[in-house]
Amino acid sequence: MKTQPDILVIDDDKDLVETIRVVLESQGYEVRRAYNGKEGRLQIEKKIPDLIILDVMMSTDTEGFDLAYKLKQSKDYKTIPILMLTSFPSSGMVEKGPEKFQHIMGEEWPVTEFLEKPVNPDDLIAVIEEVLAEKKE
Amino acid sequence: MAEGHELIKAQLFFRKELMERVQWFIRLRWTAAAAGLVAVWIAYILGFPIAVTPVTALLLFCALYNTGFSFLLRTLQSSGTSDVRHYVVFAHAQFALDFLALFGIIFFTGGLFSPVLIFIFFHIMLTGILLEPLSCYIYSAVVLLAAGLMIFLQVTRVLPPGPPLLEHPFLHAQIRFADMAAAYGIFAAAVVVTAYLITTLKISLRTKGRELLSVSRQLDLSNAKLMALYGMVKEMHMCSDLQALADSAARNAAIIMGVKACSIKLLDEQRRNLRFVSTYGLSEDYVSKGPIDIEKSLVNLRVVRGDKISIGRVDETYAFQYPEDIVKENISSLICLPLRAEKMITGVFCIYSGEADFFTQQDVDFFSLMADLTALGIENIKTQENKTWFLRKAAHQLRSPLNATHSMLDTLLRQYQGPLNSSQKGVLERCMTRISLLAEMVGDLLKIGIKRADIRRPDSTVVDVQKKLKEVAGLYQPRAYEKNIGFNLQIDDAVPGVKADPQLFDNLFSNLISNAVKYTNPGGRVDIALGVENESHILFEVSDTGIGIPEQDLTNIFTEFYRSENARAYTEKGTGLGLVIVKEVMDALGGTVTVESPAGKGARFFCRFPAAQ
How many domains does chain A fold into? Predict the structure, then answer.
């Protein structure tokens, strides 16, 4: 039997994680949940997911980025596609890039795609399908 | 430093005075010699018994040496010498020759009874005016000795009496020694009194001059300092963050106070350590020592407790945490002042000089002013930063539950959680609308708040306004087509980039374009134009054929939460903040927004803003 793609959702907003879970499971994806960067990291180490949905601001403004950059630096995890959820684009985070990470990747983002909250579920599914299809190629 | 400066300035001043007088003196001598020659020859023609040959010769001699002086003065001036002694020697040479010539003339025109004798007084006055008092008295004494000698020689007939200019009974009478002594005594008294009067007057004038000079020097200095302080305040006002402000204050303080180095340290939260925020002219080694423990540094401890400290000789003081480093930095004297915001001391501002006893009480007072202004600037920046931080945090906190609710409703509405009946769907759709509006309103409020808190932040990025408008208009074009509204975008290629926060243009374009599309009925049209109005201004214009704005509402539409009656009737979707944001954007850009709405013809918004930001 063909296994369904495994998606890890990391966000400190449990309601949002639940909502995404409902949407993704309705499409037949396996969904794992984590509510902070550390838990997310443990989940990844347990089993490498096919895709990660990651929130930028959790307990700190850049917790999501912290994790994303760490993953990109790791040999085993750097190929995992990351969808980054941002809640407040006008904070300048997305336009200017987090300065504290400039030295790691320069202008390059550690993220496959950005999605602005509130995320339209139809769009979310479309983006996930696209990213997973690209990954297969 | 100050005294040296004053001395040089005083010397310059008196050199100028002497130079001008020496020149004037030469001109005067030409007149005197010419007048003398004319007088002698008139007297001769009129038949007065005058020794015309020697007197004429003496006057010509006078003209001759005056020519020499005139030439010498020009050489002296072109040499550009600043040494006042050259001019003093020059003046002495003139007086010596003048007295010589005058005595010759007096001798040949009747000695003590010569009518020319009176000119002696003018010479005494001139020496008094031009030279030091002592020189004046010496000349007076020489004159008296010379006159006495001349009279003695004449009376004793060692010298023949000169041919008298005027017939004088004394010359024919038997001359008595006592009479001559009396006449000489009166003459001598007159000479001494003249010398005394002139030198006294001169001294008092000179003292006044010196006082004036010193006052004017102080005024100059104060003025320069105040101007520099003004520049410093202006520069600090432009600073957007603490570091930039502290750097600016440190640099300016060092320059204005004329010192080699300065530092700004701020207290940490525990008020135990002072951390260097900015330094000027101090070595890396000195600064990299890390925070200063105020308990170990008596000077800093006292300043933090509110004392103003000025130390004239650092080597005699032991009140530092790192005394050897202060010596290594070649610091000899310093002033350390508290940075005081309201009642609270937040840090220490110090200036350092390599010279011992460099600072005066006035320096301490002036530097206090500078420290107070810096403290105010620092407080102001901190307040701004706190406000912005609070708003960003609030933005996140408010938006998270809204976004989550929105997403949850969305999954219900899109039936990811099972099918809905039409009445359930209707209620959920209304919920969605209200939630969206609430999210929008929160977003708008935060935009205004953050913009207000951030208003002083200078912008370093140049925004490609043309590209930005294309992007934003592109977002609204589909909606316009959906509503069957004509959507026309015109962009002039000549519109330059503008130095500003890109977000400003996002807000400006999106608010005006979305309004135009929103309030225009199907079949209408929206025209957007971006162009160059004149050399200095860009014009952004949005016009629609929509519902327009009633005349009585035109003045209110830029007020928070205001929505005109027809707009409210048209749609309940609207925060009443969009145009407020537009107005704020124009304020931030230094531009203006105006609106026209002829009855029944839609609305036209004009935004004019400077091209060079």
Answer: 1
